[in-house]
Amino acid sequence: MDRRSFVGFGAVSLAALAAPGGPGGAADPGRLGRLLGGTRVDAEFVAWLESGGRGLAALPAEQRGRTARLLDAQLATVRTLITTGRYDEPTGRRLHRLAASLATTSGWHLFDRGRHPTAGRRWELALQSAHRAGDHGRAAGILADAAYQATWLGRPAAATDRLDYALTATLHPTARALLLLRRARAHAARHDPAACRHDLAAAERALATPSPDPAPAWCAWMGPADLAVDSGGCLLDLGRPAAARTRIAEGLAQLPPARAKTRGVFLAYQARTHLRTGEVEQALAATAESLDLATRIGSPRCAALVRGLAPAFGPYRRQPGVPELLERIGAAGATRVG
Q: Which of 12, 110, 219, 259 is the most exposed place for a label (fewest CB within 10 A)?
């Protein structure tokens, strides 16, 4: 863990982490100071921290860029409590589980901003914390996040290795569907169509499998829209843009409105399929909408995907709308959206 990436926060500053409606007195600066100094950590205070963590993770995408320091402050607080606080074994497991959750969310924020080495260190911390909490399912989810990053950075072999291991520790069908889908994307990036098709079929079966238990929080968002769009991404990587376009359109139609950042990423995928099949007008519309979303919510990752589309528009520079779009893309690159 790179401790220099954290900013020091005193007890008074940490009172700003109070969750509305939380336990009375939990945010008292004097109490915070005593807890950080070694006073016994009680369940009420851990519940308050857990509530604040859930609130930060649930913020709309356009607000997350402004809360990064709060998230890091809460993670630093939890780690200090783990190191210096006094608590029983169940409370210790809750603190480690909370540290894993906060570090995972922080890693995704860093990943979205293109800070990949720091994101990787956050996920390494999250993995260690999940193991100490005895939460093998969450550990598998963190490995899946690291695998997603590896595929994104052009290292799909590393992604499949991590997902192979993660799948041995995952039982819930929704969790398995997510891991299988990510492994299918890695297989597609490695140009292994048979393995890709196998995992896509297995992911579809898993997602359709009922379970008496709710999906773990780390994968509860996984649904048919994600399966459809990432299946389309696989087809695109395997050289089947027309089939990919159909699957991505299905997924976009099913995506909940609240997932604006995901929609921006999916639209960039859709634009790429249109460009592969020469449908310039449709590609223009999808790219423009993706760029609008990236600008509104401040998503550097989405903006980077849009910038990556610019060379594919080169052969169509004389078509209506293309010069204006390329100018917008260039301006977004110059200002670094988000």
A: 12
Residues whose CB falls within 8 Å of the CB of residue 162, separated by 6 or more in sequence, listed in order: 143, 144, 146, 147, 150
Whether the CB-CB separation of 306 and 291 falls below 8 Å is answered with yes
**DSSP symbol at 67:** S
Q: Please tell me what DSSP assigns to residue 316.
A: G
Residue pLDDT, tens place only, 168-187: 988 999 999 999 999 999 99
Write down the pTM of the prediction. 0.81
Q: Is 132 exposed, middle or buried (0-12, 13-18, 19+ CB in 10 A)?
A: middle
Token couple for 138? 């969450």
38 is a domain residue: yes
**With contact defined as beta carbons under 8 Å apart, do 101 and 129 qualify?**
no
Kindly report the number of other CB atoms within 10 A of residue 168's CB atom. 8
Domain end point (choices 119, 146, 173)? 146
- Please state, in angstroms and as integers, the Cα–Cα distance from residue 272 to each residue in 16, 108, 112, 129, 239, following that order: 43, 24, 20, 38, 12
pLDDT digits (tens, 9 = 90+) for 202-223: 999 999 999 999 999 899 999 9
Contact between 151 and 28 under an 8 Å Cβ cutoff? The reply is: no
